[in-house]
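We give the chain.
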Amino acid sequence: MTTEVRKLPAGFGRLWGAQTISSLGDGVTHAALPLLALTLTRDPMALAVVAAAGTIPWLLFGILGGALVDRWDRRRTMWVTDVARTVLIAVPAVAAAFDVLSIPLLAAVAFLLGLGGLFFDTAATAYLPELLRRDPALLERANSRLRGTQTAASGFAGPPLGSALLALGRSIPLVADAVSFAVSALLVRSLPAMPRPVPQARESLLRQARAGASYVFRDQLLLGLALRPAVGNVAFLAVETVLALFAHERLGVSDFGFGLLLTAEATGGLLGAGIASFLGRKLGTGTALTTTAAVEGVAILGLAAAPNAYLAGLALAVCGAGMGATMVLGPSLRQAIVPGHLMGRVASTSRMLAMCAAPFGAFLGGWLATAYDVRAALYAAAGLLLSMTIVTASMTSNRRVEAARRAAAEPEQAELVPAA
């Protein structure tokens, strides 16, 4: 790990910086957006619409987006998307400044930001293994750093900053996010160019998209890696939809206190990202993924039962630790075993499954909070997470992981068939 060949390339530092700055802006908006929505309505279903809107683009364009990324220059896709998001986030900032902000406008902006995220995240996921030459150890180190700083910026620093900026004016947090997108675009533009994916002659976009989806669904390991965040997002969006309401009405916290709750989750996420490689080595990647999934479920159960903000913060921190480790181990494994020409499509298919599930979670959380109680949504989320852990344990076992890594070491075989 200390030899020259094992060092992360200089270009990674710029990618790391770009995503860190953008994540800080995302964290500001992540705290400010639900609080802005709360200034407009207290209807849980209206809040669910705003929470779900950002995930709908994955339902409509997820697989096609991956096929396009596999055709396009991935670096250019990232910086152009960031420029577009800079302009987009300025729209609600202006609306807030002139006091014409509305729930439909917030939902529309969330939808378009989600569409931009689809292209940026898919391109970044496909670009990273090219930059690191698909080295499994470097991928795990790089993802650990990316996830750790993303968690620190978007969850630890961003939410309290967003709450504080909101106190200065409703448009201020959105302006800060716009600046973060602009800086990210400049950094991404300076990254080294990579060879464009080799086009597959006379093959339609739909046919290429189906090939990527088929690759995921025919591989038990890749399918298991995709199902966990899919079911997890149902649970986490159910929690996120009612969390601000839960914090205000059941725990009695202020707007700033709500930012601190999100910070507690991010603190755990930072720890989880930092120990992910250790867990993978000690338990095996498959067992580590099952363990972290179980931790998430138990933590949300604790959140539902929490009688005060302190125990709620502890539960969120534990949940964040499980999520942080999962988000390092899962993507690193996928990037190491999937052929380069399929990476965009496989990544977008996996992400699409996760993101398409999220609106169901948002509306489930809103419905349970309306029909029963906000705690009912949290208990339901915990049950989903624990059930998912049991169902997918064998699909992502250590045996399947090692078989996939051996197959990926044989390029010709890995290009022809799924790994496990």
